[in-house]
Amino acid sequence: MARIIDGEKKNMIGKKVRQFRIEQKMSQQTLADKLETIAVYICRGSICRIEEQTRTVSDIELWGLSIILEKPIGSFFEEQID
Questions:
Q1: What is the pLDDT at residue 3?
Q2: Is residue 3 part of a domain?
Q3: Angle between helices 14-23 and 59-69 in degrees, nearest 10
Q4: Distance CA 2, CA 76 (A)
Q5: The pTM is what?
Q6: What per-residue confidence (pLDDT) applies to 1?
């Protein structure tokens, strides 16, 4: 049985995280700092790796990204056919 995440990409949302962050004119460090205020700890380097799709994302991290970037969770998965 094939794994959901197979190959080099470790998450499905990295491109959307970057897009939403840039739309809000937010640096990776600012995003990390805002996540910390809701007790979701992702350092700037990990945000970079999420955006590059070289790091997995937990459910609590996805929830935090949704809250801080003010986007519904489903929007992170729209138009993800590659």
A1: 52
A2: no
A3: 20
A4: 23
A5: 0.87
A6: 43
Query: Does residue 62 register a pLDDT over 50?
Result: yes
Q: Which two tokens stand for residue 57?
A: 């994302």
Q: Are 13 and 66 a contacting pair, CB within 8 Å?
A: no
Residue 42 near residue 61 (C-beta atoms within 8 A)? yes
CATH number at residue 43: 1.10.260.40
Q: Give the contacts of 76 (CB within 8 A, at least 6 positions apart).
A: 12, 13, 16, 17, 20, 62, 65, 66
Cβ partners under 8 Å of residue 67, min gap 6? 38
Residue 80, both tokens:
């993800």
CA–CA distance, 9 with 12 (Å, rounded to integer): 8
- Split into its structural domains, the chain has a count of 1
Q: Choose among 43, 44, 57: nearest CA to 10.
A: 57
